[in-house]
Design brief:
320 residues; Quinone Oxidoreductase, Chain A, domain 1; Rossmann fold; 7-stranded mixed beta sheet; 6-stranded parallel beta sheet; 10 helices; 15 strands; globular; binds NADP nicotinamide-adenine-dinucleotide phosphate
Length: 320
Protein backbone atom coordinates (compact mmCIF):
# COMPACT_ATOMS: atom_id res chain seq x y z
CA UNK A 1 0.00 0.00 0.00
CA UNK A 2 1.04 3.63 -0.45
CA UNK A 3 1.96 5.64 2.64
CA UNK A 4 3.46 9.11 3.17
CA UNK A 5 6.57 9.24 5.35
CA UNK A 6 9.34 11.67 6.31
CA UNK A 7 12.63 10.35 7.63
CA UNK A 8 14.25 13.73 8.33
CA UNK A 9 13.04 17.17 9.40
CA UNK A 10 12.71 19.82 6.69
CA UNK A 11 10.70 21.37 3.86
CA UNK A 12 7.73 19.57 2.22
CA UNK A 13 10.20 17.88 -0.15
CA UNK A 14 11.35 15.55 2.67
CA UNK A 15 8.01 13.75 2.29
CA UNK A 16 8.05 10.53 0.27
CA UNK A 17 5.10 8.38 -0.79
CA UNK A 18 6.42 4.82 -0.50
CA UNK A 19 5.09 1.27 -0.81
CA UNK A 20 4.77 -0.64 2.45
CA UNK A 21 3.06 -3.84 3.52
CA UNK A 22 -0.66 -3.59 4.24
CA UNK A 23 -1.06 -3.79 8.05
CA UNK A 24 -2.86 -6.68 9.74
CA UNK A 25 -5.34 -5.83 12.52
CA UNK A 26 -4.61 -7.10 16.03
CA UNK A 27 -7.52 -8.72 17.91
CA UNK A 28 -8.65 -5.31 19.27
CA UNK A 29 -8.19 -3.40 15.97
CA UNK A 30 -10.03 -2.71 12.73
CA UNK A 31 -8.32 -2.38 9.35
CA UNK A 32 -9.63 0.77 7.68
CA UNK A 33 -9.34 1.40 3.93
CA UNK A 34 -8.79 5.13 3.96
CA UNK A 35 -10.88 7.29 1.65
CA UNK A 36 -9.65 10.64 2.97
CA UNK A 37 -7.19 11.92 5.56
CA UNK A 38 -6.24 15.32 6.93
CA UNK A 39 -3.17 17.48 6.26
CA UNK A 40 -2.77 20.11 8.97
CA UNK A 41 -0.57 22.92 10.22
CA UNK A 42 0.35 20.67 13.15
CA UNK A 43 1.60 18.06 10.61
CA UNK A 44 3.78 20.68 8.92
CA UNK A 45 5.26 21.65 12.29
CA UNK A 46 6.03 18.03 13.18
CA UNK A 47 7.59 17.57 9.72
CA UNK A 48 9.80 20.62 10.25
CA UNK A 49 10.55 19.69 13.86
CA UNK A 50 9.47 23.14 15.10
CA UNK A 51 9.42 24.62 17.63
CA UNK A 52 12.83 23.08 18.24
CA UNK A 53 12.07 22.18 21.87
CA UNK A 54 9.32 19.91 20.48
CA UNK A 55 12.11 17.62 19.19
CA UNK A 56 12.63 16.44 22.76
CA UNK A 57 9.33 14.67 22.23
CA UNK A 58 9.43 14.07 18.44
CA UNK A 59 13.07 12.93 18.20
CA UNK A 60 16.19 15.05 18.72
CA UNK A 61 18.08 14.45 15.44
CA UNK A 62 15.38 12.90 13.27
CA UNK A 63 11.68 12.04 13.65
CA UNK A 64 11.07 8.95 15.78
CA UNK A 65 7.72 8.44 14.08
CA UNK A 66 8.14 8.72 10.30
CA UNK A 67 4.44 8.40 9.43
CA UNK A 68 2.26 11.41 8.55
CA UNK A 69 -1.36 12.32 9.13
CA UNK A 70 -3.63 12.07 12.17
CA UNK A 71 -7.24 12.35 10.92
CA UNK A 72 -8.92 9.72 8.73
CA UNK A 73 -12.20 8.61 7.23
CA UNK A 74 -12.79 5.34 5.42
CA UNK A 75 -14.37 1.90 5.39
CA UNK A 76 -13.74 -1.07 7.70
CA UNK A 77 -12.16 -3.78 5.54
CA UNK A 78 -11.30 -6.35 8.22
CA UNK A 79 -11.53 -6.66 11.99
CA UNK A 80 -9.83 -8.41 14.87
CA UNK A 81 -11.50 -11.15 16.88
CA UNK A 82 -12.41 -8.85 19.83
CA UNK A 83 -14.19 -6.16 17.80
CA UNK A 84 -17.85 -5.80 18.70
CA UNK A 85 -18.75 -2.24 17.72
CA UNK A 86 -17.91 -2.25 14.01
CA UNK A 87 -18.51 -4.60 11.13
CA UNK A 88 -16.84 -4.97 7.75
CA UNK A 89 -18.21 -2.32 5.39
CA UNK A 90 -18.95 0.29 8.10
CA UNK A 91 -17.93 3.84 7.21
CA UNK A 92 -15.81 5.15 10.08
CA UNK A 93 -13.78 8.24 10.91
CA UNK A 94 -11.49 9.40 13.69
CA UNK A 95 -7.97 10.25 14.73
CA UNK A 96 -4.74 8.38 15.34
CA UNK A 97 -3.28 11.15 17.50
CA UNK A 98 0.51 11.14 17.71
CA UNK A 99 0.85 7.65 16.25
CA UNK A 100 0.01 9.22 12.86
CA UNK A 101 0.02 7.17 9.64
CA UNK A 102 -3.34 8.32 8.21
CA UNK A 103 -1.86 9.77 5.00
CA UNK A 104 -1.86 6.25 3.61
CA UNK A 105 -4.15 3.71 1.95
CA UNK A 106 -4.80 1.66 5.11
CA UNK A 107 -4.50 1.97 8.87
CA UNK A 108 -5.19 -0.31 11.80
CA UNK A 109 -6.76 1.32 14.83
CA UNK A 110 -8.04 -0.02 18.15
CA UNK A 111 -11.77 0.11 18.77
CA UNK A 112 -11.34 2.08 22.02
CA UNK A 113 -9.39 4.88 20.31
CA UNK A 114 -10.99 7.94 18.67
CA UNK A 115 -13.04 6.15 16.00
CA UNK A 116 -16.80 6.23 15.36
CA UNK A 117 -19.24 5.46 12.56
CA UNK A 118 -19.35 8.29 10.03
CA UNK A 119 -22.72 10.00 9.60
CA UNK A 120 -24.02 9.53 6.05
CA UNK A 121 -24.69 13.28 5.85
CA UNK A 122 -20.98 14.20 5.77
CA UNK A 123 -18.40 13.29 3.14
CA UNK A 124 -15.19 11.38 3.84
CA UNK A 125 -13.14 14.51 3.19
CA UNK A 126 -15.15 16.52 5.74
CA UNK A 127 -15.07 13.69 8.28
CA UNK A 128 -11.28 13.26 8.00
CA UNK A 129 -10.69 16.84 9.16
CA UNK A 130 -13.01 16.88 12.19
CA UNK A 131 -10.42 15.57 14.64
CA UNK A 132 -8.11 18.54 13.97
CA UNK A 133 -10.02 21.82 14.25
CA UNK A 134 -13.25 20.62 15.85
CA UNK A 135 -11.82 18.22 18.42
CA UNK A 136 -9.06 20.64 19.44
CA UNK A 137 -11.33 23.66 19.67
CA UNK A 138 -14.08 21.76 21.50
CA UNK A 139 -11.52 20.56 24.03
CA UNK A 140 -10.41 24.17 24.53
CA UNK A 141 -13.85 25.77 24.69
CA UNK A 142 -15.54 23.14 26.85
CA UNK A 143 -12.83 21.76 29.13
CA UNK A 144 -9.95 24.25 29.16
CA UNK A 145 -11.96 27.49 28.89
CA UNK A 146 -15.23 26.29 30.42
CA UNK A 147 -17.08 28.65 28.06
CA UNK A 148 -20.54 29.54 29.32
CA UNK A 149 -23.73 30.71 27.64
CA UNK A 150 -23.79 34.49 27.31
CA UNK A 151 -20.02 34.94 27.64
CA UNK A 152 -18.16 37.01 25.05
CA UNK A 153 -15.30 35.19 23.34
CA UNK A 154 -12.82 36.55 20.81
CA UNK A 155 -11.42 33.95 18.40
CA UNK A 156 -8.15 35.00 16.78
CA UNK A 157 -7.57 33.18 13.47
CA UNK A 158 -11.30 32.60 12.97
CA UNK A 159 -10.91 31.46 9.34
CA UNK A 160 -8.46 28.63 10.05
CA UNK A 161 -9.08 25.00 10.86
CA UNK A 162 -9.27 25.53 14.65
CA UNK A 163 -10.84 28.99 14.30
CA UNK A 164 -13.67 28.07 11.89
CA UNK A 165 -14.54 25.15 14.18
CA UNK A 166 -14.29 27.30 17.33
CA UNK A 167 -16.68 29.94 15.97
CA UNK A 168 -19.33 27.32 15.22
CA UNK A 169 -18.91 25.48 18.53
CA UNK A 170 -18.95 28.70 20.56
CA UNK A 171 -22.21 29.70 18.85
CA UNK A 172 -23.69 26.28 19.69
CA UNK A 173 -22.63 26.86 23.32
CA UNK A 174 -24.54 30.15 23.37
CA UNK A 175 -21.60 32.56 23.43
CA UNK A 176 -21.26 35.96 21.77
CA UNK A 177 -18.45 35.57 19.27
CA UNK A 178 -16.02 38.05 17.77
CA UNK A 179 -13.86 36.57 15.02
CA UNK A 180 -10.51 37.95 13.84
CA UNK A 181 -9.29 37.22 10.30
CA UNK A 182 -8.02 39.03 7.20
CA UNK A 183 -10.11 40.92 4.62
CA UNK A 184 -10.42 37.99 2.23
CA UNK A 185 -12.03 35.73 4.83
CA UNK A 186 -14.49 38.16 6.41
CA UNK A 187 -17.49 36.79 4.47
CA UNK A 188 -16.57 33.23 5.42
CA UNK A 189 -16.29 34.07 9.12
CA UNK A 190 -19.57 36.04 9.04
CA UNK A 191 -21.27 33.04 7.42
CA UNK A 192 -20.24 30.90 10.42
CA UNK A 193 -22.40 33.07 12.68
CA UNK A 194 -20.12 35.55 14.46
CA UNK A 195 -21.69 38.65 16.04
CA UNK A 196 -18.69 40.75 15.08
CA UNK A 197 -15.64 40.39 12.85
CA UNK A 198 -12.33 42.27 13.04
CA UNK A 199 -9.95 42.50 10.08
CA UNK A 200 -6.50 42.17 11.68
CA UNK A 201 -4.92 43.85 8.65
CA UNK A 202 -6.85 47.04 9.44
CA UNK A 203 -7.42 46.95 13.20
CA UNK A 204 -5.78 45.60 16.33
CA UNK A 205 -8.40 43.96 18.58
CA UNK A 206 -6.44 44.99 21.67
CA UNK A 207 -6.84 48.69 20.74
CA UNK A 208 -10.56 48.81 19.94
CA UNK A 209 -12.07 49.30 23.39
CA UNK A 210 -14.13 46.07 23.53
CA UNK A 211 -13.50 43.54 26.29
CA UNK A 212 -13.90 39.77 26.40
CA UNK A 213 -14.40 36.93 28.89
CA UNK A 214 -12.19 34.61 26.85
CA UNK A 215 -9.60 35.24 24.15
CA UNK A 216 -8.86 32.04 22.20
CA UNK A 217 -5.79 32.72 20.07
CA UNK A 218 -5.96 29.73 17.72
CA UNK A 219 -2.91 30.84 15.76
CA UNK A 220 -0.56 32.17 18.45
CA UNK A 221 -0.29 35.55 16.70
CA UNK A 222 -1.22 37.57 19.78
CA UNK A 223 -0.05 37.22 23.38
CA UNK A 224 -1.37 37.42 26.93
CA UNK A 225 0.81 40.46 27.54
CA UNK A 226 -0.91 42.38 24.72
CA UNK A 227 -4.37 40.97 25.30
CA UNK A 228 -4.79 41.25 29.08
CA UNK A 229 -5.99 44.86 28.91
CA UNK A 230 -9.07 43.71 26.93
CA UNK A 231 -9.86 40.76 29.18
CA UNK A 232 -12.73 41.15 31.66
CA UNK A 233 -12.22 40.53 35.37
CA UNK A 234 -11.46 36.79 35.74
CA UNK A 235 -10.97 36.66 31.95
CA UNK A 236 -8.95 33.89 30.31
CA UNK A 237 -6.38 33.90 27.49
CA UNK A 238 -5.85 30.49 25.93
CA UNK A 239 -3.96 29.21 22.92
CA UNK A 240 -3.08 25.86 21.34
CA UNK A 241 0.22 27.28 20.05
CA UNK A 242 3.03 26.87 22.54
CA UNK A 243 5.64 29.61 22.75
CA UNK A 244 8.17 30.48 25.46
CA UNK A 245 6.00 33.48 26.42
CA UNK A 246 2.86 31.34 26.72
CA UNK A 247 4.71 28.70 28.74
CA UNK A 248 6.04 31.36 31.08
CA UNK A 249 2.63 33.04 31.50
CA UNK A 250 0.84 29.73 32.18
CA UNK A 251 3.32 29.13 35.01
CA UNK A 252 2.97 32.64 36.46
CA UNK A 253 -0.82 33.02 36.02
CA UNK A 254 -2.31 29.53 35.62
CA UNK A 255 -5.89 30.76 36.10
CA UNK A 256 -5.59 33.48 33.49
CA UNK A 257 -3.49 31.82 30.77
CA UNK A 258 -3.91 28.28 29.48
CA UNK A 259 -2.29 25.95 26.95
CA UNK A 260 -3.22 22.37 26.21
CA UNK A 261 -1.90 19.73 23.80
CA UNK A 262 -5.16 18.05 22.87
CA UNK A 263 -3.46 14.96 21.49
CA UNK A 264 -1.94 14.30 24.90
CA UNK A 265 -5.30 14.23 26.71
CA UNK A 266 -6.70 10.89 27.88
CA UNK A 267 -8.17 8.78 25.07
CA UNK A 268 -11.47 8.35 26.94
CA UNK A 269 -11.88 12.12 27.36
CA UNK A 270 -11.21 12.74 23.68
CA UNK A 271 -13.58 9.96 22.70
CA UNK A 272 -16.28 11.55 24.85
CA UNK A 273 -15.78 14.96 23.21
CA UNK A 274 -15.65 13.35 19.75
CA UNK A 275 -19.02 11.69 20.39
CA UNK A 276 -20.60 14.96 21.47
CA UNK A 277 -19.32 16.59 18.29
CA UNK A 278 -20.67 13.67 16.29
CA UNK A 279 -24.17 14.34 17.69
CA UNK A 280 -23.94 17.97 16.59
CA UNK A 281 -22.80 16.92 13.10
CA UNK A 282 -25.67 14.43 12.87
CA UNK A 283 -28.07 17.27 13.69
CA UNK A 284 -26.45 19.35 10.94
CA UNK A 285 -25.41 22.03 13.45
CA UNK A 286 -21.71 22.03 12.46
CA UNK A 287 -19.97 22.11 9.11
CA UNK A 288 -16.35 21.25 8.29
CA UNK A 289 -14.94 23.92 5.99
CA UNK A 290 -12.80 22.42 3.20
CA UNK A 291 -10.50 24.74 1.28
CA UNK A 292 -8.72 22.23 -1.01
CA UNK A 293 -8.27 18.50 -1.55
CA UNK A 294 -5.19 16.73 -2.94
CA UNK A 295 -4.57 13.13 -4.00
CA UNK A 296 -2.11 11.22 -1.78
CA UNK A 297 0.52 11.36 -4.55
CA UNK A 298 0.42 15.17 -4.31
CA UNK A 299 0.87 15.45 -0.55
CA UNK A 300 4.01 17.59 -1.03
CA UNK A 301 1.87 20.16 -2.88
CA UNK A 302 -0.66 19.99 -0.02
CA UNK A 303 2.08 20.78 2.53
CA UNK A 304 3.41 23.61 0.34
CA UNK A 305 -0.09 25.09 0.27
CA UNK A 306 -0.49 24.67 4.03
CA UNK A 307 2.70 26.67 4.47
CA UNK A 308 1.72 29.38 1.96
CA UNK A 309 -0.38 31.21 4.57
CA UNK A 310 -3.31 31.27 2.13
CA UNK A 311 -5.24 28.32 3.52
CA UNK A 312 -8.64 28.74 5.12
CA UNK A 313 -10.52 25.94 6.89
CA UNK A 314 -9.11 22.48 6.20
CA UNK A 315 -7.11 20.49 3.66
CA UNK A 316 -8.04 16.87 2.89
CA UNK A 317 -5.96 14.18 1.19
CA UNK A 318 -8.07 11.91 -1.01
CA UNK A 319 -7.41 8.29 -1.98
CA UNK A 320 -8.82 7.10 -5.31
N1 LIG B 1 -2.37 22.39 21.01
C1 LIG B 1 -3.05 21.59 20.23
O1 LIG B 1 -3.62 20.60 20.69
C2 LIG B 1 -3.15 21.84 18.74
C3 LIG B 1 -3.91 20.97 17.94
C4 LIG B 1 -4.03 21.27 16.58
C5 LIG B 1 -3.40 22.41 16.05
N2 LIG B 1 -2.64 23.19 16.85
C6 LIG B 1 -1.97 24.40 16.34
O2 LIG B 1 -2.97 25.38 16.15
C7 LIG B 1 -2.50 26.34 15.20
C8 LIG B 1 -3.62 26.74 14.29
O3 LIG B 1 -3.88 25.74 13.40
P1 LIG B 1 -4.90 26.00 12.19
O4 LIG B 1 -4.82 24.78 11.37
O5 LIG B 1 -6.20 26.46 12.69
O6 LIG B 1 -4.18 27.19 11.45
P2 LIG B 1 -4.61 27.81 10.07
O7 LIG B 1 -5.75 27.04 9.51
O8 LIG B 1 -3.41 27.97 9.28
O9 LIG B 1 -5.21 29.16 10.56
C9 LIG B 1 -4.56 30.27 10.35
C10 LIG B 1 -5.56 31.35 10.25
O10 LIG B 1 -5.04 32.38 11.04
C11 LIG B 1 -5.24 33.58 10.41
N3 LIG B 1 -4.15 34.51 10.69
C12 LIG B 1 -2.94 34.59 10.11
N4 LIG B 1 -2.23 35.60 10.65
C13 LIG B 1 -3.03 36.16 11.60
C14 LIG B 1 -2.86 37.23 12.50
N5 LIG B 1 -1.75 37.98 12.54
N6 LIG B 1 -3.88 37.50 13.34
C15 LIG B 1 -5.01 36.79 13.32
N7 LIG B 1 -5.24 35.76 12.47
C16 LIG B 1 -4.24 35.45 11.63
C17 LIG B 1 -5.37 33.29 8.95
O11 LIG B 1 -6.45 34.00 8.52
P3 LIG B 1 -6.46 34.85 7.18
O12 LIG B 1 -6.17 33.87 6.07
O13 LIG B 1 -7.83 35.40 7.16
O14 LIG B 1 -5.34 35.83 7.29
C18 LIG B 1 -5.63 31.78 8.85
O15 LIG B 1 -6.90 31.44 8.30
C19 LIG B 1 -1.29 25.70 14.53
O16 LIG B 1 -0.13 26.33 15.02
C20 LIG B 1 -1.33 24.24 14.98
O17 LIG B 1 -0.06 23.66 15.07
C21 LIG B 1 -2.50 22.93 18.19
Amino acid sequence: MKTAIYTKYGSPEVIQVVDTAKPLPKPNEVLVKIKASSATIADTMMRQGVPKFGRLFLGVFKPKNTALGTGFSGVVEAKGSQITKFKVGDEVFGEKLFSNGCNAEYICIAEDMVIEKKPTTISHQEAATISDGFLTSYSFLKDIGNLKKGQHILINGASGSLGSAAVQIAKQMGAFVTGVCSTSNIDLVKSLGVEDVIDYKKNDFTEMGNTYDIIYDTVGKSSYKKSKKVLNHNGLFMSPVLSCELLWCTMLSPKKVKFSATGMRKQKDLKYLFNELLSLFKEDRLQAIIDRTYPLDQIIEAHNYLESGNKYGNIAIINS
